[in-house]
Amino acid sequence: MNLTKYVEKYPILESVAAFWENYFSCRDKLLSKLPDFISPDSIKVDEFKKAFDEGRPYLDLFKIKIYKKDLNFLAKIVKDDFGIKEKVKFDEKGLPIFDKLILPEDKIGFVKLVVYSSIYSYIGDIIMKNCSLVKWYEPICPVCGSRAGLGFIEGDGKKSLVCSTCYTRWGHRRTACPVCADEEQKSMKYLSADELPGWRIEVCESCGMYLKVLDLREKNEDTPLYPLLYLSSWDLDVSVKDLNFRPSWFKIFYAASWLNK
Length: 261
Known about the structure:
The chain is α/β, with parallel strands linked by helices. Helix content is 35%, strand content 13%.
């Protein structure tokens, strides 16, 4: 994957471009291999709809089996691409919702994150081709159970959220906190910066967190490279650093923190 044009548009990304090119290329490799290990037919639409109607993530209600040898095969792709030598051990017998996984912020956690998030993305893609997620109003991903990493105001004025782990995109109430779903308007604050048109931060005093949201009516730009889109507006995060609110962002940011140690 060549990110040259994207970096030219957002020079703030120049210093991290090599990592992200490698990351997205590695994910593409994993996604191309996954049909060999998880048949698309094993992702049952009726099962998803049952979980959806109960307001529960798909993987919280229905477990998907994958052999450890297959996880090890996928992990080797990640390790080879990033030059990681450490041994990665998988203990799970099935795929749990992501937030029940305990991943260390080191090379092993990074490998597992890339493997699992790619699997969940694969499942999410199959589900989204067969089901509408417009009326899912929970503050967590309907596929893997993670919270949002980014939000959008769509062209029709409706709001959508993007999963911080598998990048599944679903609809959400504009009036509710995108992190905890609190609907008390007095708890919500909206911050923006003139130099970043279309972007705003939604701050919730109830949960103490914030989410960045891009208004596509003001800035007609969308990209499946969601973590990069987030980083392109990093100055907005810096501007609220002293307000003591925690960001809701992408899990890969934590998992790749070992690169800076």
